[in-house]
Design a protein that fits this description.
This protein has helices at about 35-40, 60-75, 80, 150-160, 280-285, and strands at about 10-15, 20-25, 85-95, 100-110, 115-120, 125-130, 135-140, 145, 170-180, 185-195, 195-205, 210-220, 220-235, 240-250, 250-265. The chain is mainly beta and about 280 residues long.
């Protein structure tokens, strides 16, 4: 991928949903609420410091917009992608960062407009992350704990990735070239910039299916992450990648395979609800 000068890396990362989301600590202790985040506030004091000003129209060149639209159409169209009112997936995950690859399971529930739950289970741990529309919380086995403004903002950003690549229709778009980086394939490369993130999206020149999303800059500096999508299969009118690889610094760190997936099935809101643990209840006024 073509690279541009980048800032020093400043952040750690947490994995949520389909991607790794960079978050930082002290710099994000600004005042804000989940409601303000959802409503794309125009005041810089009300939105996360890495978010673009919604009053500024992003620059989009015609070729980049054309390729992005063809990529969306190849999946089934924006209406079909955004028409998934609920998403439920079960995935097999293999983590390659252990001394030996370790296999686990990921369960994901998403309900528009803003509820999501992810459970990750490995032989040695069980991790739950949830946003119930107002509160972000996590449970690593010791009971649920509320997360702060930074985690809430990161989760809300991350939910939009479930609509990839429709979520980039309002991004800055630049067409690069036709790349030969995909083994045995050619790909159109579209550079996108949105809310502090810079990525290169690679669309297969024959099918226009998204093959790679490479992130090399985020709000906190340089990064080298890549997601590879393949084994597209139709689900509820949307072509859905059933195998995804996650790479960092030219090394695959994990991969997932969808074993079950349903769209638009009923999901009870109770699965997202936050229930304080006894210690937190005791501290409430």
């Amino acid at each position: 991928m073509t690279r541009s000068p980048l800032l020093p890396a400043l952040c750690c990362a947490v994995t949520f949903g389909a991607l790794s989301i960079g978050i930082t600590g002290g710099a994000l202790l600004a005042q804000g609420t989940a409601q303000q985040l959802k409503e794309k506030p125009s005041s810089a004091a009300e939105r996360p410091p890495w978010h673009d000003d919604p009053a500024v129209t992003p620059t989009q060149d015609a070729k980049a917009r054309e390729i992005l639209m063809k990529g969306i159409q190849a999946l089934g169209g924006a209406d079909a992608i955004l028409g998934r009112e609920t998403i439920h997936m079960k995935k097999k995950v293999i983590n390659h960062e252990y001394p030996q690859p370790m296999e686990g399971t990921i369960l994901l529930w998403f309900k528009r407009p803003d509820k999501i739950r992810k459970e990750v289970t490995f032989p040695d741990r069980h991790h739950v992350e949830v946003y119930d529309g107002k509160t972000a919380w996590v449970d690593t086995g010791t009971g649920p704990r509320v997360k702060g403004y930074a985690m809430t903002a990161a989760i809300i950003d991350g939910m939009k990735e479930l609509d990839l690549p429709v979520n980039f229709l309002d991004a800055e778009l630049t067409y690069f070239n036709v790349s030969q980086e995909l083994p045995g394939k050619l790909a159109h490369v579209v550079k996108v910039r949105k809310n502090g993130y810079t990525r290169e999206l690679m669309f297969d020149v024959d099918t226009f299916l998204l093959a790679v999303s490479g992130e090399y800059e985020n709000p906190w500096g340089a990064t080298d992450k890549m997601i590879k999508f393949d084994r597209y299969r139709p689900v509820g009118g949307v072509l859905t990648p059933h195998h995804i690889e996650y790479w960092r610094s030219n090394r695959m760190v994990s991969e997932t395979e969808i074993t079950e997936v349903t769209f638009n099935a009923p999901i009870n809101d109770e699965i997202f609800a936050y229930h304080p643990n006894p210690q937190e209840k005791a501290a409430l006024p």
